[in-house]
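Internal ticket #5521
Category: modeling
Description: The requester needs a full-assembly model to guide mutagenesis choices. All entity lines are attached below as received. Residue total reported by intake: 538.
Assigned to: D.W.
Attached entities:
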Amino acid sequence: MTTQPGTETAGRVIDVLLLFTDGPDDLGVSWIARELGLSKAVVHRILQTLVARGMVELDQESRLYRLGPTTAALGARALREFDLRAVATDTLRRLHRQTHETVTLTALVPGGRAYIDQIVSTHEVKMTVELGRRFPLHAGSSGKCLLAFLPQPRREEILAAELSALTDKTITDEETLRTELTAIRDLGYASSQGERQADAGSVAAPVFGLDGNVRGSVSVCGPRSRFTPQFVGACAPHVVEAAHDLSTLLGWKATGPGRPTASLPAPPP
Amino acid sequence: MTTQPGTETAGRVIDVLLLFTDGPDDLGVSWIARELGLSKAVVHRILQTLVARGMVELDQESRLYRLGPTTAALGARALREFDLRAVATDTLRRLHRQTHETVTLTALVPGGRAYIDQIVSTHEVKMTVELGRRFPLHAGSSGKCLLAFLPQPRREEILAAELSALTDKTITDEETLRTELTAIRDLGYASSQGERQADAGSVAAPVFGLDGNVRGSVSVCGPRSRFTPQFVGACAPHVVEAAHDLSTLLGWKATGPGRPTASLPAPPP
DNA sequence: CGTGTTGTTCCACACAGCGGAACGCTTCAG
DNA sequence: CTGAAGCGTTCCGCTGTGTGGAACAACACG
């Protein structure tokens, strides 16, 4: 890794916090220390700081730490201000009415992507996603369509890294993924059959921000049995439309003849 | 302040983050530095770290920083896991059906309290609260009922400090507040007329956790004109019941004959 | 009763981060 | 048009803060 900007110590604090979003709910000192390659002493001190401000709580019995009220408060504020989510509510509801399946909103975050909102299906057998947890970009429709429309340098970075297998359907071969991404750019949407979650299927389309870069994606997802090619085909236009509407709401203006221009390189160095 | 536990630097990182919940949406380096009494260099470095992890975003034009996608993701996770909120949804909805006013859920956080959730009134003229922002405990019904049932040492700490006036109705006199708090403990609920927000009225009751300490509060609030003594009296039983239900859901067991025991001192030294 | 974990505390040392100062830039007043 | 005052950013030598290995107590397992 090229030395991150900012300070080492500050980074560690955030890294500890973010571990809580990726892993299980409660974490112990040693586990965190191992995970981040830090000494137990350091981790312990950071956790003390976090506890003092209510960002995490210490369960006296189990001696495990979990996210606390301050983080919940911070989160409530962040979600309120986060334009993508604020702007999406109505559109998501519409998409839900059209498909009756679970619809999700995904944001691009450093280190991957995370679901930031969902409306769950009314079906008895349905899918729910884990809000806030980070997932890699190469698995699942929401991830793939982000990856497909990412500025080329960042995309190459990710393609160059190891493509971990979340299920046995996850695309782990670089070349296969490349052609898949080209197809996604052509179609304007992505679909997946069990790539991230074994018994789930999904269709997703990208949302672009003011600067023309991908900001997130919208998806319809559910039990794999219901996601037949026919259903996927029927959903796709709705998903694409919803994503397009969100892009517009975020101030994005179509440059080409209707379809977003793929992979503009990021502006300045 | 007695030197906080944990490390200085780590604390600063969190303090910077939390400024975003208390103040306006976008902040500049100098403003933050002034607010926290730090050098601009330090703040700038911390912000760089936060930007690198997506916790905050930099608006290139205005050179102002605001909360970013990672914080939104972290927040989504924290809110999902935060038992008080998770457990409250149904109860809040019921309370909303009973009163047709805005109902809120408040959590106790270091440095005050913050609204964690709300269901807004269906009336045309209604109140909405600012989720995630920290408010002091001595103003407003949600705050006062937290303060009233806080373990004595912590309560005294707050009473000893300056009682800032958020409106001209805010109780700023220590003795007046003391008798008010006693009344609240007797009644089991608190009410306010414009103490925190000039043209708002509210009724609130405390929620207790497994350990018998206050965790948060539930309130019904709205435009002051509708919060007549009659309406407050009519609401109170519902609010108290809702709060009681939540306490039960959190594992709290009534010790006395129905009413929660006030102000147990905190267990260990 | 040892041997493996935990989480927590201590302390001398080194180096990471601090912060004053300087920079380039924009904005506003005169 | 000039000057002052604000902003965010960068630099660099000194220092004081946080580091991390080791030692500790408290459990858990066999």
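Resolution: model delivered.
Comment from assignee: The longest strand of chain B covers residues 214-223.
Ticket closed.
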